[in-house]
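Handout, page 2. Input:
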Amino acid sequence: MPVSTEKIQTGTPESAARRKPGGTISAPAGLGPLIREAWYVIAASEDVGRELSSITVLNEPLVFFRAEDGTPVVLDDRCAHRRFSLAKGHLKGDAIQCGYHGFTFDRTGACVFAPAVSGKQNFGVRHYPAVDRGPWLWVWMGEGAGDRADIPLPDEIEEVEHGFRGYTFNPCNYLMVHENLLDLTHLYYLHGPSVSSEEYANTPPKLLPAPDSRHVGYVRSVSGTSFKLQSIFCGADGSLKLTRTEENWSRGPALNFGWIKFERDDGIDEPVRPSRQMVVHAVTPQTETSTHQFWSFRFNEPLVVSEDEAADAIRKVFAEDIEVLAVQGRLIAEDTRTGVVENSVPSDVPGLRLRRALQRMAAAEKK
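Output:
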C-alpha cells in the first residue's frame, strides 16, 4: 500500500479572550480547530451535586451544580460585575451569590440581586444548555439550545453493566488525543508487549462506511497473539493466545468509542470472560493546547480481577500516553519552521479523515 504525504493544516491563533457563541477558534499549525457547535462532557453525572464546581471548555470558564430539583445548571464562571469566579461564591437556593460583592445570578444566568440596587438587573451571565446522558454531564457550547439528539454517545453504553471510569488531563491539543486513540499501533511500541503485540501493530485497519461526515471508523482483527493485559482481566497468566477484533470510531470533536471482542486461539472450546468490552473516551478541549479526557471501560461480564486493579492498569497506560503527548504538543508549538510536512502511512488514514472532518466543521461555523 503506498505511503502518503500530507502537509500540516495551518490556522491563525486567536486570543484566549471570551468570544461570542458560534465563533470558530483557530489553533496553531498542525492542531485541531476548536469546534463550538458540539456537546462536550464536563463531569461524571454522579459527581455533580449541590456544591459549586468549575471547568474550562474551549477557553471559557464554566461553573456548574444541580438545582434543588436535580436539574444540572451550567453558567459562565465570571461574575458580570467584576469577573470574580462564581465558583468561589455560594448557593442561595438555586442562585449563585458571588463571594466578592454579593451579586446574585439565578439558574438562567439573570442577575436577581445587586447591592444597594432594587429589583432584577438588566444584565447577567451566559447560561449553557446541559443534560445528563450515560455516565456523564454534557454541555452545549454553541448557539441556541442545542439538539440533544446530537449528543454523540452511543446508546449501547447503557446496556453494558460492568466496568469502571476515570479522568485524564492531557497537556496537548485535543486532536492529538483523538489520533492517539485512532492509531493503536502505538500500543506495542509505546506500552510494550504487556498491552499489545507486534502482529497487531503490523495489521493495518480497514475503514468502515461512515453514517455521516462527522464519523470516522475502522475495524481491525488479529489472531494467534498474546494480549497480556486482557488475559489478566480474564484471569489468565498472560500467555493466552487470543483473536482480537476491534471496531473504533470518532464522532466529531467530542467522542471516541469502540468495541473489542476477544476469542480463544488455543483450541479450547471455552469462551473468554469477559469476551467483549466497550471503551468510550469523551474528549473535551480545555484550550488550544490542553484537553480533558473522560473515559469509561465497560464489559459484558464481570472482570475476574477487581475493577480497581483493572483501572490502575489502565491509568498506567494513559500516564505513558500523557508523557508522549505532552512532548509532542510542546515540540509542535516550538517548531516555527515553514514547509514542514507530516508523512503518513495506512494506519494514519482514520486520523487524517478526522482532521478533514474537523476542518469542514470549523469552516461551516465561519459561514
